[in-house]
Amino acid sequence: xxxxxxxxxxxxxxxxxxxxxxTVQYPEEQPTxxxxxxxxEFTWYEDRCTGCASCAKYCPLGIIRIVTDPHGGHExxxxxxxxxxxxxxQGRCMYxxxxxxxxxxxxxHMGTSFEAARNRRSDLVVPMExxxxxxxxxxxxxxxxMERANYNPYSQAAEDDKAxxxxxxxxxxKRPEMRSYSETPEASTGTNPPRNExxxxxxxxx
Amino acid sequence: MEGALRDxxxxxxxxxxxxxxxxxxxxxxxxxxxxxxxxMSVIMLVVNSLFALxxxxxxxxxxxxxxxxxRIGPNRAGPFGLLQPIADAIKxxxxxxxxxxASDRLIFNxxxxxxxxxTFMIVAVIPFGEGSFLADLNIGILYISGVSSMAVIAILMxxxxxxxxxxxxxxxxxxxxxxxxxxxxxxxxxxxxxxTGSMSLVDIVEGQSLPYLLVLPLAFLVFVVGxxxxxNRPPFDLAEAExxxxxxxxxxxxxxxFGIFQLAExxxxxxxxxxxxxxxxxxxxxxxxxxxxxxxxxxxxxxxxFIWIRATLPRLRIDQVLAFAWKFLLPLGLINVLAAAIxxxxxxxxxxxxxxxxxxxxxGVAIVAVxxxxxxxxxxxxxxxxxxxxxxxxxxxxxxxxx
Lengths: 206, 403
Description:
The complex is a heterodimer. By secondary structure, chain A is of the alpha+beta class.
């Protein structure tokens, strides 16, 4: 019947009139983001970082500056390079998260904050000291093991890299049958899960 | 002081106060001073309260529209955003007053003034409480419909003087819509006049023992739809359709001239609500509160209806708008006038029970008429359209054709 659709529309708007407004009054009220939010304040666990500079290579903007010293007291016995400089220029970061995806040792995580305003562009460069010292609220973006452990970046800090856990990189696009193996629950519980090469064996590395 | 002015409580109380307390005892022949002071004070009161109410109404509308759209609305300036109209006014006053080079300077400047003038001329006959009005004109309704259609000239002047094609489009659309919708609106007013036997708004309110919303539902429907088209409000806001013609006839206006247009439009909404309140909702009668306040409450309630319509319905096309006026509202208005005239012949001076009977008949007539004409308009609209997608062979869906 003519007019029925109109009446339905009036009903919709009337219902909205008595609903709570959707607006979040931002400066007074802090909006909660999803735990997988790709925010600023990158979280970096220096104990895990081997200085491989994968993040710097994968960054599309080239804003991660990393300087390592192979002879700085760390011999290469499967160990780490000594990291001398690790800067992220957040003024040019677009928060794509490719550095976090590229990190083979889950040392770099996205953050959960979004209030990045500074007075100078130079203040937006995050130096290594700040990355080391500040409170770690890593986002669970690209870190499914943290989600499985019910980690919430808004309620707790993850200062210890042991608590964060590691996701063994088991499946490969060419080997989809490995996918089911990586989703078994015990993969997330281990404090220090095996490294990729231990699981895959030498033949699988490309 | 004559009878009509004596009925005006504000005027007569100021008049008496000046004569008895301001003019010293023993001074004779000072009635002219009392007359002048009383008249000026009433005019100041009405005009300024209309200004104040309109500015506050903009806040009310934006706030309510926000709630209809699930957001909060203006809430930053002052407590609850109550000072937002003042902030807007300051912004408009401090903006540069631009004048297009090819414009007709005189007409460009006169148009907003004329627009506001028609608005304020309507206020003269609106009784806004028991015994409170500027003038109880015995041709009040005729005056309102005559003066309000002068706004068309202001819009046409604004559009033409702007030397802008979008402004011209907007004003032409406004003129087409306003002239079309004037007829059903006047027809619905006519039915009220037939029943009341008077064109004075005070008489109409005092003659309504039952609200005409109940007695004449068809007139109410036609009037609300027609007046929202005349006010250039959604869904009939073609004259200033932002997505099509920037801002319509006030595209080239800035600063306070634009502000005057906006003020006039919002004041017109309030005045239309006031007229609906007077004609269909018994004006200030059945007051649980003081009559002025009660009237104001009804006016804002009616304005809420307009805001609700604005929040709900999408904009129509110009041919749909005109077809709606001529094919749907005009026949309904004629049926309404016919029914009212026949009822007036049968019951010359209806009692309350007879009014109820009339209301029942009119509701039946309204439902049948709306259903019949809606179906007729709806059937006429469904012309099968043969669509041909170029480059796609028959038997192939368009998606396959594209890829």
